[in-house]
Amino acid sequence: MRKLRPIVMLLSAAALVLLVPRGVRAGGVFVTGHDPDFHAVQGGNPSGAQHIIQDSLNYVTNNQVNSILLVTDRVNPGAGYSDPELGLTASGYTFDVADNGAAGGAVLDLSTVNFSSYSAVVVASDFGGWLRQSELDILNSRKTDLLNYVNGGGGLVAFAESGPPSGLASTGLFGFLPFLATSATLNQTEVGNQVTPFGATLGLTDADVDGNASHNIFTSTGGLNVVDRDSNGEILSLATRETISVTGVSAVPEPPMFQMGGLLLMSGLGLLRRRRIRFGSDAQAQSGTHTS
Length: 292
What we know:
alpha/beta
């Protein structure tokens, strides 16, 4: 028994290391050419638009929607646009709002707001919604903060950024996610859109992504999963809950501490196995028997 004590200690050390938390799980990203912040209150299919908002937020937060920051301008552009606050409210949410710093009062300054105070950041659409170039420029300048926020467990949802001629933003569309700088303006009525098998796992159906309008497509995925496509097969929405970088989705290496725990465990089991073999050989020698 005394000879087994080092092996027991080694296995105990491995168990303690393996019980250490493996680090924070990355949050999620959902980007789309739909503008559900508008269509949740206007258009032919408000319930479908509300489902897009709800299912995207549930996905990026792993069903833990505790607090939301809505990024939008506060100046009404007029006809053809709708306050994104109305869309989120119609979908059942309360939230804080951040803009370019112009509104003041209860509206937060996007340049200084702490993203980590929220379980999800929602970026309004620039056509349908009120996102302007001034807010987009700030988001793009804080792309490192946003990537760190997502990789630290935060959720990010971004609605359509179509640019000219109708969009309120013009350059750097989705630049806060640099690997998605491959979006293209495409204003179209939603007819014949289809949810992918992955999109269905979010709870979305074909009926949710049809019946309103969309304003951009994505011409590459950046490693994200395709959520739905238009009738021509173009990508309308993308999502992931993996670690992301400036080049897109990246593999998540095991923390060094966890790797050490695995090595200790393998070493301990190996020593224990050799100890048992030696004990069995000694017993056979004493009894005068052997095995082939």
